[in-house]
Amino acid sequence: MTDRRVAILIVNGFRRRGRWARFNLDQALKYPWIRMCLDQIERHSQGWDYQVFVFDNSHLKSHRALMRKHARVRVLPPAWIAVLGRIANRLPLPHFARLLERSHPSALDYLARKVAGEFDYIVTLDNDSFPVSDDWLHVLVGECEQGAALTGVHRNEMAPEIAPFIHVSGLCVRPADLFALNVSFGEGAQPEIEHNQDVGQQITYAFTQQGRTIAALERSNALNVHFLMGAIYGDVIYHHGAGSRKGKFWTSTDRDTDDRVNAALRDAAFKDLDHLIAVLRGQAENDLGLEAV
Question: Quick check: is 252 in a domain?
């Protein structure tokens, strides 16, 4: 399977303005999740023919410098857009600045259209989700090779409020299958499609309606300290769940606890990621200062 060409799509940063603005500049500078994500991809994808496409909403010089260190990473949009974005961020021109940003789903749609025809698979990740096992692509691509139209992180932690689906924090699909759906990654883009509350959710529903096989990577933690954050799926992908933003979720009932857990998991990840993963796998003592849920 390692002869399959894989395009890995990532959106770095969130919109700073408008209804869906969630970007936290201070957190993004102090905790550059994109660095950890790209390091983990490089570490765990040896032997694979892959290229990473990053849509950078942050416009941060430090983030773009981190991304340029990786030979297999292509950063979009071009540098001159980032320069304009940094200028706009210093001026009282919110409407102009918004033109230089894309929502997460819109950015994924943009990246997907940029993927050349020679790629056999598209894999999407969040900037705070990344592989934690050398066989992560074997697992994702292998499911599709065995007949699945879609495989990846099974986001079922907020059911029934949000119907379970394959989340973009770890999603794998053939480009031809994705484009044939004629379905956007975007929430609200096609309101006539049921189950359209979250990024990429309608893709799962569209394949299901066709009777196609969906291969789900279930949450595999031995230790859970939050109903959504700090999750390992299929023992191959970690998703923090709230990188560079507040830990606000559809079904949250205790925001103070969400923020405390978010900070503890984040600090543990940036201190020693391998140790954090070992704790969540039950291979090391729980020293996170967080109780199991």
Answer: no
How many CA atoms within 13 Å lie on the side-chain side of 64?
Answer: 18
Residue 189: per-residue pLDDT? 47
pTM for the whole structure: 0.90
- Tell me the C-alpha to C-alpha distance, in Å, between residue 81 and each of 60, 67, 85, 138, 180: 11, 16, 6, 36, 31
> Which CATH number do you get for residue 164?
3.90.550.10
Please give the structure tokens belonging to residue 290.
Answer: 């967080």
CB 74 within 8 A of CB 12: no
195: left (phi over 0), alpha (psi -120 to 50) or beta: left
CB-based contact 200:168 (threshold 8 Å): yes
- Residue 37's domain comprises 5-220
- The Cα–Cα gap between 165 and 167 comes to 6
Q: How many folded domains does the chain comprise?
A: 1
Residue 257 is encoded by which pair of tokens?
């606890």
What confidence tens digit (pLDDT) does each residue in 45-73 have?
999 999 999 999 877 888 989 999 999 99
Instruction: Give the closest residue to 76 by CA, choosing from 53, 98, 59.
Output: 53
Taking CA atoms, 41 is separated from 62, 126, 227, 236, in Å, by 19, 12, 25, 11
